[in-house]
Amino acid sequence: MKALRAYAPASIGNVSLGFDVLGAALAPVDGSQLGDVVDITAAESFSLTTVGTFAHKLPAGADNNIVTKCYHFFCQAMEKHGKATTPVALTLHKNLPIGSGLGSSASSIVAAFAALNGYFDCPFDEDTLLHMMGELEGQISGSIHYDNVAPCYQGGMTLMTGAQEPVTLSLPLNPTWYYAICYSGISVSTAAARDILPKQVEMSTALTFGRQLGVFVHALHAGEFDLAASVMKDVIAEPYRKSLLPGFDDARAFSEREGALAFGISGSGPTVFAVCSSEQQAQRIARYLDENYIQNEDGFSRVCQIPQAGTVVSPLNENDTAPAL
Ligand SMILES: Nc1ncnc2c1ncn2[C@@H]1O[C@H](COP(=O)(O)OP(=O)(O)O)[C@@H](O)[C@H]1O
Ligand SMILES: N[C@@H](CCOP(=O)(O)O)C(=O)O
After folding, report:
1. N or C: which end of the chain has fewer CB within 10 A?
2. Quick check: CB of 100 below 6 Å from ligand 1?
């Protein structure tokens, strides 16, 4: 009987300078996993079981879980294309904290679609799946944005095109950059953190945003990584969102003193990230954040890099255990 497991990594939405249009996948350098997992097997009727560190924070009832919504959405898409589906049992390993700024809902959505697509012999191509994933992410966060689902699914650092296809462009990675990330333990709703943003931006802000993004993309392609880092500044969301994040200014000040190349909010927060030029520097900043930015026992920090690989779908063996965070 066919049984699959899909692992979908955490991601940094916006990467400071690219509100809604730039995102990056995350992989801890210690080799541990940081992401949700969905297992899929055949069943007589549909079911969703939730396990994992943050399963108890999910809304009660399988019908309220975004993974169930993905299943129904996928079945409808199959039907539209004249393809049959059969009932499945899904298990969501909810390893990412909810409302963390680590693309938690995106991770569940991407793992669910990747597992379903794999199970039903890959009826949909990458762009079609990305549109489905973006649609579901939009249902949960208030508006469609691909900056978590795309890097989570495809890996690397991705720039959204706004076109039907390709949905994304993959940007060159700098293998010498390390990312100290820290989740403070509090929950910030993405929808609420979007609501507090002004609906229009000043002309000068729009010019800075466009200039920075252009310079960043050029600099990555040219291998001018210091130039790329110099424009990693959030002129759209950080000025408004940082008020939701206790300790943000101190964390930024420490990272700058330590010589971090850039510092910002991951997605809508509360997770923050520092871009570092060495693993040692990232470890020092992660230690500081551990001791000073974390607000409760749910918080954690990790030193990560951006992996080339995104979601991985593999055969599920009977004795596979839940991956730890
Ligand atoms: N599998 C799931 N993973 C994460 N959130 C889920 C899931 N299913 C339902 N939800 C709900 O979706 C919302 C996700 O909130 P959001 O702030 O967008 O989280 P995140 O920023 O971590 O993706 C929450 O209200 C949460 O209860
Ligand atoms: N571009 C979005 C990213 C939200 O990321 P999340 O990890 O907080 O869901 C935004 O900034 O609103």
Report:
1. N
2. yes
Distance 2 CA to ligand 2 centre (A): 34
Q: Residue 319: is its pLDDT beyond 80?
A: no
Backbone conformation region of residue 62, classed left if phi is above 0, alpha if psi is from -120 to 50, else beta: alpha
Domain 178-305, what fold? Alpha-Beta Plaits (3.30.70)
Which CATH class name applies to 3-171+307-315? alpha beta
Provide the CB-side half-sphere exposure for 235 (13 A, CA): 16
Confidence check: pLDDT of 216 > 70 = yes
SS3 for 126-166, per residue? HHHHHHHHHHHHHHHHCCCCCCCHHHHHHCCEEEECCCCCC
pTM recorded for the entire structure: 0.96
Ligand 2 atom index nearest CA of 104: 7
CATH 3.30.70.890 domain span(s) along the chain? 178-305
